[in-house]
Structure formats: structure tokens, C-alpha cells
Design brief:
This is F5/8 type C domain-containing protein. The protein is mainly β. 3% of the residues lie in helices and 31% in strands. The longest helix is centred in the first third of the chain and has 9 residues.
């Protein structure tokens, strides 16, 4: 049995604190079909289990476990069987507030590090020992940033290169993904990214290169050309690779957040992200638009460890 504590993290990089100890903690069978599931995917760290996670997210669960020979087996026409978890003595209730248990030290002087994704935003941090060797003894350090995490990340300035910006399609060379920089005005080009086709499969993607970059704010504009084109609604997706993206959700509701876009070509519309996104890749996925899919964007936030 493999479990996931925080659905903002793929199962293949984080195994939850529930462990199979001979007593099943499974209850409340969840059934229903989902077209994303097609075939059998091993539910083991490092394997292609992400599709199971997506199906569970869609069903409204943030903590799940999979049984049946450690596989998630289903297709679009038959129900998948995914179980919720009962109470665990170490982990608390099997819900979004379940505890994450960290591996500690194996000797006195070797340093053990753990990255926190998503990061903790708080004034007080407490280490609560669970198991120990001899007496409870430890030395610790915390890493993070105390400066304001809201600087532009470099789309407009060019700090983010053309090669880091991509799109599902491009209308032509004058409307390439690299033209999506906020406030871009190019006398030789119309100024903005524009999709080749106007459907909801279109997206604009930014590769921030650094894993766990913190994004706290987004900004959008419409086309700078003569045509009245802009995006009126979009969703944000994020991930640490290009294989699996997560929808940004409304806090406490686990429902996809649809952002209000622009009402004209040049007015900048900002949205603060609370909680922030922590990821390498950010996608603007288009929902509704005026005239045609055209947009210019900027991201704001900070890179942990970078001044």
C-alpha cells in the first residue's frame, strides 16, 4: 500500500507517513470512472502513479492509498477502486491535515536535509521527536527567505530567455511564445503571443529552470497589435516536470480556480496567489477570450536561496 499525504506533491517524490503494519487502515470505498485512467500503473515510488493521483484529486480527496497488488487499475468505462485512510496513531486523521513524518539522523554528525514543497510560511517552527537513539538530542538549521517574495521573475526584462517560454501553438512568427512578455512593444511585430487555433487546449508555458521557485503573483495583458484580442478567463497549472501538471485550486475547497483575465488590450490585470505556487513550470491555460487567444504575461515571486 502506498499513500500520499499532500496532493500538491507527486507520489513518485513523496511517500506519505502511513505504513502497512499488518492492520488495514482502509475504509470508505471511493468508486467512479475517470477517463484519465487507462490500464494499470504500479503504485510505487518512482513509477508512473501520477494519473491515479489526478483521479483522486478530481474526486475531491487529498490523501489516498492504493491496494490490489500495489496497482491502480481502471479505464474510462469501469470504476476505479481507491480507498481513504482511517486514523493512524502517528499521522493523525487521514485527511489533508495528516502529519508528514521525516527521516532523522543515523549518527551524531552527519547532516540530513529535507526540502519542503510546498514551503512552510509561519512565525514558529517546532520539531516534534517521534523516535530516537539513546536520549533525545538534536541540532538544527532552517533554510528559506525572509525578504519580500514578490519581485518580477524576468519575463518582461528578458532575464527569462526566449527558450524558456513555449506554447501549445503559435499563430505565426510575429506571435510566437517569446512575444508574450508583459508590456512588449515591438515595431516589427504586433506584440503578444497568439495561438494558432482558438480552443481550450491552448496554453502558454514558462520554464523557471529552478525547482521550487515560489510564484506569488501573476499579471496579464492582451495583444498590442491592431486587433482587439485578449484572454478573459484562464486557469494556472504548475509542475516540476513537463509530464504532470496540477491545477491551481481554491484554498480549502480543492476546486480549480478560474482567474479573471483582461477587459481590453493593454490594461494589466494582477492576481495574488495565496497560497503561492512552488514549481519549476507555470502554465496559463486558456478558458475564454475576446477575438482570439492573445496574451502577454509576467510572474512575480522569488527563488529560495537567491538574493
Amino acid at each position: 500500500m502506498i499513500s500520499e499525504v499532500n496532493m500538491r506533491r507527486p507520489l513518485d517524490i513523496s511517500v506519505g507517513c502511513y505504513k502497512l503494519d499488518g492492520t488495514s487502515r482502509l475504509t470508505h470505498e471511493l468508486t467512479g470512472s475517470d477517463p484519465i485512467l487507462n490500464g494499470i500503473y504500479p503504485a510505487q515510488p518512482g513509477s508512473f502513479i501520477s494519473k491515479c493521483a489526478v483521479a483522486v484529486i478530481r474526486a475531491g480527496y487529498r490523501l489516498f492509498a492504493v491496494e490490489n497488488n500495489d496497482t491502480c487499475s481502471a479505464n474510462a468505462s469501469t470504476p476505479q477502486k481507491i480507498e481513504k485512510l482511517k486514523e493512524s496513531k502517528k499521522c493523525g486523521l487521514g485527511d489533508a491535515n495528516a502529519f508528514q513524518e521525516f527521516d532523522g539522523n543515523k549518527d551524531k554528525n552527519s547532516v540530513v536535509y529535507h526540502d519542503l514543497n510546498p514551503p512552510i510560511i509561519a512565525r514558529y517552527i517546532r520539531f516534534l521527536p517521534v523516535e530516537w537513539k539513546g536520549e533525545i538530542s538534536m541540532r538544527v538549521e532552517l533554510y528559506g527567505c525572509m525578504k519580500e517574495c514578490g519581485r518580477f521573475l524576468g519575463i518582461q526584462s528578458g532575464e527569462i530567455s526566449d527558450g524558456q517560454i513555449s506554447a501549445s501553438s503559435e499563430r505565426d512568427s510575429n506571435h510566437s511564445a517569446s512575444q508574450s512578455r508583459l508590456h512588449v512593444i515591438n515595431p516589427d511585430r504586433e506584440g503578444s503571443w497568439a495561438a494558432k487555433t482558438d480552443d481550450t487546449d491552448q496554453w502558454l508555458q514558462v520554464d523557471l529552470v529552478i525547482l521550487h521557485t515560489i510564484v506569488t503573483r501573476v499579471a496579464t495583458q492582451g495583444s498590442n497589435g491592431p486587433k482587439r484580442e485578449w484572454v478573459t478567463k484562464y486557469i494556472l497549472q504548475y509542475g516540476n516536470d513537463t509530464e504532470m501538471f496540477y491545477n491551481y485550486t481554491v484554498p480549502e475547497q480543492n476546486t480549480m480556480k478560474v482567474f479573471a483575465g483582461n477587459i481590453d488590450q493593454n490594461t494589466v490585470v494582477y492576481h495574488d496567489l495565496n497560497p503561492p505556487i512552488t514549481a519549476r513550470y507555470i502554465r496559463f491555460k486558456l478558458v475564454e477570450w475576446q477575438g482570439w487567444i492573445s496574451m502577454r504575461v509576467e510572474l512575480y515571486g522569488c527563488v529560495p536561496g537567491k538574493a
